[in-house]
Amino acid sequence: MFDLRYHVASLAAVFLALIIGILVGVGVSDPVDNAKTRLLERRVADLEGQLDQRTDRSTRLDRERAAAQRFINETYPTLVRNRLKGKQVAVLFVGSADGAVRTAVKDALADAGAQQLRLRAIKVPIDAKQLNAALKSAPVAGSFVGPDRMDQVGRALGQELVFGGETPTWDALNDFVEERVGGGKKPADGVVVVRNVAPQRAATSRLLLGLYNGLTSSPAPAVGVETTDAAHSATEVFRKAGLSTVDDVDSRVGRYALVLLLAGAQSGQYGVKDSAEDPLPPLPTPGG
Fold it and tell me: How far is CA 221 from CA 36, 86, 95, 101, 261, in A?
């Protein structure tokens, strides 16, 4: 994203170099006439004026940003209270269930009156041979055939996570699940997805894409989230799979965006990164 303070610092360096160049140039060259000297002096004054304006603007924006953050911090509890009251939300981690993101998601659900229905964290990368061996003796083995086998497996995992009931695919692949919290019977009212690993390749990539597609095939909102300092952003992959995204779930603005999306707000990509469309989904109207 565009950083005004970085831009101001860059301009200051450019202006300083230009001024030094002018002074050095005047010092080593033949004496210049008064008109040319005045022209150079005016140019330096103009550049200094532009720098002052940008510095003032940066200071003003910093103050506005601080005021906005304070307003959000003070109003957040009221904005999210009971917005997800009674909702049951499933949480999926691709990779280990990271503490920071896990806490942010848990807090957002609790603040809005929702409950975490179940959590699953899957180990990646997937060894295709081990996965096929695990499926071979499972009751669902005949459900996955042909060249799209990995995609089919992933899609079944996604649908079972959302719809609940019997979960034969998750049961068959239990060895690939790093963490399992909560039962699988009840349907979820929404799903939160976190990818805590680098982009995957080959069979694992196909399985994950199928899984994301399985999540979005249900009417329940599916939201991919990450922190502002995530080492490997997954927002583009989530977007292509049809998930909404929040790229700053570590902030109160991000948690508010997550709550709104799980409550049925307009799907899309939200947050502070270049991939985001807006910081927040369209806000609900009074009484909505």
Answer: 67, 15, 21, 19, 7
Per residue in 154-204, pLDDT (tens digit) is 999 999 999 999 999 999 999 999 999 998 799 999 999 999 999 999 999
Distance CA 38, CA 232 (A): 53
How is the chain split into domains, by residue range?
4-78, 85-270
d(C-alpha 19, C-alpha 33), whole Å: 18
Fold of 85-270: Rossmann fold (3.40.50)
CB 254, CB 280: distance < 8 Å: no
pTM exceeds 0.85, yes or no: no
Instruction: Note the pLDDT tens digit of each residue in 254-264.
Output: 999 999 999 99
Cα end-to-end distance, the chain, whole Å: 32
